[in-house]
């Protein structure tokens, strides 16, 4: 909390007190007239206005933090279009209740979704998939952008909170998941006195099979018991490499706020994933622990190196041309520009400044190009890029975004935001060709910005126009809970389906209402039904086709197909007083399974408005007592 107070104070010192206008920060200037503010607000409003019937130019995908959800916005309108459940239950869609998503959840009912990342082809967002990580329960997920639904979810072993971002190699060969919280392998018990020997900071390499739409753990890298934070994959000339930040190289085990910030330097981990891939596929170059290929860089050398950087770094970002990576220490006022070419030369000539447990440490001055210290800019965190060679870095403590040149370190512009920005995201900003049109600052605090909703305020996302000579905030949007990162992709890259294709071979599906049926085998009851405006049919042979009778204790499965092959005619399925819900989109089949452990008469109804007779779309589940 103290850090938040400091950040607000620093922001106020820089004149961050915002007006009540959502379209930018237009506080009166000395000698100016109030009318100028009105004109500026009007100009900003025009820049974000998308007339009804027209579409936004970009999608913004923002992580939903501890809600476990994804928030989808349009840019420049900043209209919230959709909330997509990933790692948490969602009663609106039945995510976590229907069989497919319930199996994916793996017994967890919530998640902490931090960093979305798009699939890439040749370093460009290809609009096919979005990957995500769950800090709370050590999961990775992939969302199919043709349906906006989770295609697969993987529980990653030996990992304590993959906070780093599911950063993607430039042809989506791997997503890498280093751990935030060191743990003993297998989450085994070990006293903290054995922290330095028993605890590990494992990084996982995960592949995605586009044909089967399955995630798979390829191998893991055993690292020291440090906390690994943000990461990025190389591009172009550095395409075989990746970088990730670390902190608590002190290996503190208590009072981390103090004890994990003692050293002046922590490390960026630089690794060659092509070499690690070879080691994982070569007998004798890795160990197999509990069925997982594990590479120990202290024994198998030539792929992993440490680069000293300012202490407690958070972000590390690769420039679009792949020639540099930029790392910033939260507790230092400098952004440091490192050269991949210099790093490769240092590796080749072995310009090492020692090692840590056998992992070579590159000489700082041999790899660093420059340190950039904008006056009074405090708390640099994350960096994004435009199409003109400029970098944009958030300053958490001084509450601003700084525009600067990695080529010469010169500051070109800076703009106050409200308040305490963490991440920021530029249009196509993590690709090899950013658009340079918009930037969104993801602010941790929105005090004074919106109508009060009690002691806890929403966070804010501020849209910044990059097309003019100076950065300009043109919209401020509340968001709750906190987005930890976001991605912006051109809207025309996505081709979502409007109706699921009719597939008569799909397991559990029924396309002819006359074939709706109830099948019993012992105490297992399967209902193969249809949903269509405005009725359910569960048993075509019954005089009451929308009623299902089972016995208490039966295992019941409803397999429901929405045979309304019409865009946006979604049907819901809810059982009153039975805690069961799901949503079935046009052309889709979903299954919900449960034990009928409660006797009685329970209405079934469509939970998603579908037609004029939506209220009449209902039936009954009758559960006979034992």
Jot down its keywords.
8 helices; about 40% strand; about 10% helix; about 625 residues; mainly beta
Total helical segments? 8
Q: Identify the overall geometry.
A: globular
Low-confidence spans? 1-35
> What number is the mean pLDDT?
92
In terms of DSSP E residues, the strand content is: 35-45%
Q: What share of the residues lie within helices? A: 10-25%
What topology, given as strand order, has the largest sheet?
8-9-12-13-18-17
Structural class by secondary-structure content: mainly beta
Tell me about the largest β-sheet. 6 strands, mixed
Distance linking N and C termini? 56 Å
Radius of gyration from CA coordinates: 27 Å
Quantity of strands, as a count:
44
What does this entry look like structurally?
This protein is mainly beta and 626 residues long. Helix content is 10%, strand content 41%. The protein contains eight helices and 44 strands. The strands form eleven sheets. It has a six-stranded mixed beta sheet, covered by helices on one side. Strands 35, 36, 37, 39 and 42 form a five-stranded mixed beta sheet that branches. The longest helix is centred in the N-terminal third of the chain and has 15 residues, at 34-48. The termini are far apart.
């Amino acid at each position: 909390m103290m850090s938040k107070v400091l950040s607000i104070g620093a922001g106020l010192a820089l004149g961050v007190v915002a007006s009540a206008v959502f379209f930018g920060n237009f506080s009166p200037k000395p000698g100016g007239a109030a009318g100028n503010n009105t004109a500026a607000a009007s100009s900003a409003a025009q820049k974000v206005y998308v007339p009804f019937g027209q579409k936004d130019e970009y999608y913004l995908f923002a992580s939903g933090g501890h809600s476990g959800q994804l928030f989808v916005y349009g840019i420049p309108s900043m209209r919230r279009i959709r909330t997509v459940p990933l790692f948490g239950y969602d009663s609106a869609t039945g995510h976590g209740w229907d069989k497919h998503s319930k199996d994916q959840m793996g017994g967890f009912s919530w998640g902490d979704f931090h960093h979305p990342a798009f699939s890439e082809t040749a370093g460009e967002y290809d609009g096919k998939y979005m990957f995500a990580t769950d800090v709370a329960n050590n999961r990775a997920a992939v969302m199919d952008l043709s349906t906006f639904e989770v295609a697969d979810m993987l529980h990653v072993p030996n990992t304590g909170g993959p906070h780093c971002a599911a950063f993607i190699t430039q042809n989506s060969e791997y997503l890498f998941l280093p751990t935030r919280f060191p743990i003993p392998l297998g989450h085994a018990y070990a006293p903290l006195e054995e922290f330095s020997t028993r605890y590990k900071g494992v990084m996982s390499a995960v592949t995605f099979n586009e044909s089967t739409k399955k995630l798979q753990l390829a191998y893991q890298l055993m690292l020291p018991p440090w906390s690994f934070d943000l990461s990025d994959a190389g591009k172009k000339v550095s395409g075989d490499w990746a970088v990730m930040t670390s902190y608590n190289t002190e290996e503190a085990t208590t009072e981390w706020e103090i004890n994990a910030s003692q050293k002046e330097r922590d490390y960026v981990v630089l690794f060659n994933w092509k070499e690690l891939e070879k080691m994982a596929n070569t007998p004798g170059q890795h160990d197999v622990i509990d069925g997982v290929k594990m590479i120990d860089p202290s024994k198998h050398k030539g792929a992993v190196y440490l680069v000293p950087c300012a202490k407690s770094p958070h972000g590390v970002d690769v420039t679009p041309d792949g020639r540099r990576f930029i790392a910033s220490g939260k507790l230092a006022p400098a952004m440091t520009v490192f050269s991949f070419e210099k790093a490769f030369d240092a590796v080749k000539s072995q310009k090492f400044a020692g090692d840590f447990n056998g992992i070579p440490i590159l000489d700082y001055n041999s790899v660093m190009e420059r340190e950039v210290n904008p006056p009074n800019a405090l708390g640099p965190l994350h960096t994004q890029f435009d199409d003109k060679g400029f970098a944009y870095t958030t300053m958490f403590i001084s509450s601003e975004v700084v525009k600067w040149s990695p080529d010469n370190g010169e500051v070109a512009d800076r703009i106050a935001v409200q308040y305490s920005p963490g991440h920021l995201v530029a249009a196509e900003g993590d690709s090899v060709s950013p658009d340079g049109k918009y930037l969104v600052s993801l602010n941790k605090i929105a005090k004074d910005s919106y109508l009060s909703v009690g002691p806890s305020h929403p966070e804010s996302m501020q849209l910044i126009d990059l097309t003019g000579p100076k950065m300009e905030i043109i919209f401020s949007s509340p968001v709750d809970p906190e987005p930890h990162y976001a991605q912006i992709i051109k809207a025309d890259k996505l081709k979502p389906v409007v109706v699921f294709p009719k597939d008569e071979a799909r397991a559990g599906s029924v396309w002819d209402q006359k074939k709706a049926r109830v099948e019993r085998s012992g105490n297992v009851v399967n209902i193969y039904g249809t949903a269509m405006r405005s009725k359910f049919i569960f048993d075509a042979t019954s005089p009451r086709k929308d009623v299902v009778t089972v016995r208490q204790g039966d295992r019941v499965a409803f397999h429901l197909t929405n045979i309304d092959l019409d865009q946006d005619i979604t049907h819901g399925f809810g059982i009153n007083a039975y805690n069961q819900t799901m949503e079935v989109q046009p052309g889709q089949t979903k299954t919900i399974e449960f034990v009928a452990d409660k006797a009685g008469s329970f209405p079934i109804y469509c939970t998603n408005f579908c037609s004029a007779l939506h209220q009449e779309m209902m039936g009954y589940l009758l559960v006979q007592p034992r």
